[in-house]
Amino acid sequence: MPGKANDKNPITLILARCDAISEEQAGLYRGLLSEAEWARNRRYRFERDRHRDLIARALLRTELARRLGVQPQQLAFVQGEHGKPELLNTAAVQVPDNLHFNLSHAGDCVVLAIAQHRVGVDIEYTLRTNDVMAIADRYFFGSEIKELYSFAKSEQKNRFFDYWTLKEAYMKARGEGISLGLDNFGFSVANPQAISIYMEPCLEDNPEHWQFLCVTPESGYRLALAINSATTMQLIVQECIPLKSQLPLVWNIAG
C-alpha cells in the first residue's frame, strides 16, 4: 500500500449490520439522539430506513464518545457548508484537531471511518439492476470511461463501483460533495494496489497527499476509503452492535 512506511496512520473502519440489531436493541438508541436527529429519523417513510438511520446515529455517537471519554448524549453536531457533519466544541466536550470521521450506509450495512486525517468512506450495494454503464457515460471523467470500457465486459459492472465509491469517498473527505465538480478529477483503478487520482488545478489539491483503497467487505457490497495522508495506512476493521458488542474483522484488501 502506498505511503511512507515509518510512521503510523491508524484508520478504524467499524461495520454495523442492521439485520443483526433487534428492535429491542435499537430501542436503546433513541435516548442517544438529539431532538433534531430524532425528528429527521421520523421523516423517513419506510421503517427499514428509520431503523438504519437510528443505527447509524448510535454508531457514530457511541464510537466518538468512547474516544473522547464522554457520554454519547453529550456530543453536539453541526453541518458544514456542504452538509458534512462536524463535532462542536462545548463546555463538556473538547474535540481534538486530529479527530476526523465519516459515515456511509447501503443495504444492510452501516460503516463508520475514524482517522487522524481527513477521511471519506463510501459503501455501495452492487447487486442492483439499473444500467450502471449509462451512469458512467454521463458522470465519469473521460479517462475513467476509457479505462472502464477496457476491462472485460464481464468485469465492467463490478469495476464501475470502484470508480463510483472512490469518487464519493474523495468528495466526502474533502467535505465539499458534488460542488467539487465530477469533471475536475478522475481515478485509475487498473492496478488495485496503486489507485491513482488525477486532479484539475482548480481543486488546489495534490494527488501525492492522498491514499485510496477499494475492498469488497462481503458479497454484494463494494467499499472505498480516501485518506488525506501520505503515511502508510494502519487499517483496523471491527464489527459492532452499539452498546452491546465489538469484534475484530479481517478483510481481504488485495483488490
What does this structure look like?
The chain has 255 residues and is α+β, with helices and mostly antiparallel strands. The chain has a single domain, classed as Alpha-Beta Complex (Ribosomal Protein L22, Chain A), CATH 3.90.470. The protein contains 6 helices and 12 strands. The strands form 4 sheets. The chain has a 5-stranded mixed sheet with strand order 4-5-1-11-12, covered by helices on one side. Strands 6-10-9 form a 3-stranded antiparallel sheet, covered by helices on one side. α2 packs antiparallel against α3 and α5 packs antiparallel against α6.
Task: Describe this protein with a few key phrases.
alpha+beta, three-stranded antiparallel sheet, Ribosomal Protein L22, Chain A, 255 residues, globular, 30% strand
The major sheet is characterized as:
5 strands, mixed
- Helix-strand topology string: EHHHEEEEEHHHEEEEEE
For the record, the CATH class is Alpha Beta
CATH architecture name: Alpha-Beta Complex
Mean pLDDT: 93
Count of helix runs: 6
Could you give me the name of the CATH homologous superfamily? 4'-phosphopantetheinyl transferase domain
Secondary-structure blueprint:
Blueprint: E1 4-17, H1 23-27, H2 35-42, H3 47-68, E2 77-79, E3 85-87, E4 100-106, E5 109-115, E6 119-125, H4 132-139, H5 142-150, H6 153-174, E7 185-188, E8 196-199, E9 211-215, E10 221-227, E11 231-241, E12 245-248
Parallel strand pairs: 1-11
Antiparallel strand pairs: 1-5, 2-3, 4-5, 6-10, 7-8, 9-10, 11-12
Helix pairs in contact: 2-3, 5-6
What's the quick description here?
With 255 residues, the protein is of the alpha+beta class. It has helices at 23-27, 35-42, 47-68, 132-139, 142-150, 153-174, and strands at residues 4-17, 77-79, 85-87, 100-106, 109-115, 119-125, 185-188, 196-199, 211-215, 221-227, 231-241, 245-248.
